[in-house]
Amino acid sequence: MFKRILIANRGEIALRVIRACRELDIESVVVYSKADANAPWLDLADDAICIGPAPSAKSYLSIPNIISAAEIANVDAIHPGYGFLSENAHFAEICRSSNIEFIGPSVDAIHRMGNKSEAKAAAKKAGVPLVEGSDGPVASEAVALETARKIGYPVLIKAVSGGGGRGMRVAHNDISLVNSLLSAQAEAEAAFGDPSVYLEKYLEAPRHVEIQIVGDRRGEVVHLGERDCSIQRRHQKVVEEAPSPALSPDLRKKMGRAAVRLAKEVGYHGAGTVEFLVQGKEFCFIEVNARIQVEHPVTEMLTRVDLVKTQILVAAGEPLPFKQDDITFEGHAIECRINAEDPDRGFAPSPGLITVYAAPGGPGVRIDSHARAGYRIPPNYDSMIGKLIVHAADRDQAIRRMRRALDEYQIEGVKTTIPLLRRILGNSYFTAGDYSTRFLDQMLSAESSAR
Asked: What is the pLDDT of residues 403-419, one digit of tens each?
């Protein structure tokens, strides 16, 4: 087992990993930028090392700086969290070549799953249904036009590398495809250092459902059910829940088995998610996130499996501590992402000093957050303050519990998405489970029209 782990991340996920390390009797070392010099989570780690100025490129994305910190701290392993370098195959390779274990999949699996065209090829080989699209990156505008006309508009332009909605555009005709192609490529180049994009058929109103997987180095892979992530804005998730109100037991079983087949096809170990679009009784693969997800607590609440501890154990060479038949699901869980944003101003970031912070509590309520009163949210990074997760016996009770918890949550000094989340949880379409990836846009449009 590891004795000392460096956490190459910040915020709530850094705190989450610190806590897992402490429960495993592993020392934790956090890195931080100058913008995070007074961050609350630094006090809970065994050591903290500054790795550069505020810009991510000179700190949290600087591989030389992080490796230097790891060597100074004499760590056995690095946990990358999510975002930043968590799906960077080169970083994983540098870690392992420096005799530091990367807590995540193999370099080959990260590369194959991070490159969406290769991931689709692996899914096809594993017999997993695919969205119709280009066979790989589109080499030119002419090829893009030919492909779009073949599969039919609307089409989705997607970056081959990365995610989070960057390098993604919807085109409804030849003109919008030509106009969107260059901007998508430029955004992909800026975000991921790779301008390659591919095309796939754009489904107008699907569900976005992901399957949580975890595998060990001995070839065992288990799925831990699904999470419905359809409540999104600009392809970024806002509310997640499990189980999905859209899946039948038969469809759930098919999707779980498909996710495991794909993971075994690429020799996957560690935690990850296989993401699908669901429309009616059909599902199709879109991508793999080769890391822990922001919304992993939803699965932890249903299954009572600690995914971060499991990540660490399998990275250390331990076998999975459970088999597929050991996984059971109890009740219903919902997660709301609390962001320092102003929804009334186009979700503009709202950095600044938190003057009042009072978190909700009570039965079935979990808060994963690094925030507190007196904490100044820097303008340099993602705007998420934390995650509010609830668990209850069924979906109706979970919704009621989340509404109550949101009403208790007090954050002052900055704008937050809490008022928007209250409206989502009170929306009749959401409470009925009748929603798609277009839900939030439609809700906001209806509210705007009603003003």
From this structure: 999 999 999 999 999 99
Task: Reply yes or no on whether the pLDDT at 108 is more than 80.
Answer: yes
Domain presence at residue 114: no
Q: Which of 44, 36, 35, 56 is nearest to 15 (CA)?
A: 44
Residues noted as catalytic: 291
Rounded to whole angstroms, the Cα distance separating 131 from 155 reads 11
pLDDT at 190: 82
Residue 327 in tokens: 């996984």
Percent of residues, the chain, with pLDDT higher than 70 = 99
Residue 158 has pLDDT above 70, yes or no: yes
Helix axes 63-73, 89-97, angle to 10 degrees: 30
Does the residue 246 lie in any domain?
Answer: yes
Shared domain check, 152 and 180: yes
The pair of structure tokens assigned to 385 is 């303050």
Single-letter code of the amino acid located at 120: K
Q: Has this prediction a pTM greater than 0.70? A: yes
Pairing of strands 27-33, 4-7: parallel
From 259, 227, 264, select the one nearest 246 (Cα to Cα).
227
Same domain? 312 vs 238: yes
Q: What is the pLDDT of residue 23?
A: 98
CATH number of the domain to which 41 belongs:
3.40.50.20
Containing structural domain, residue 193? 132-201
Output the domain CATH number for residue 446.
3.30.470.20
Among residues 103, 119, 154, the one where a domain terminates is 103
28-66 burial, b if ≥16 CB within 10 A, otherwise e?
Answer: bbbbbbebbeebebbebbebbbebbebebeebbbbeebb
**CATH code, domain with 150:** 3.30.1490.20
Which parts of 309-401 are beta strand (E)? 332-339, 341-342, 348-349, 352-353, 356-358, 365-369, 376-377, 384-392
User: What tokens does 321 get?
Assistant: 């501590």
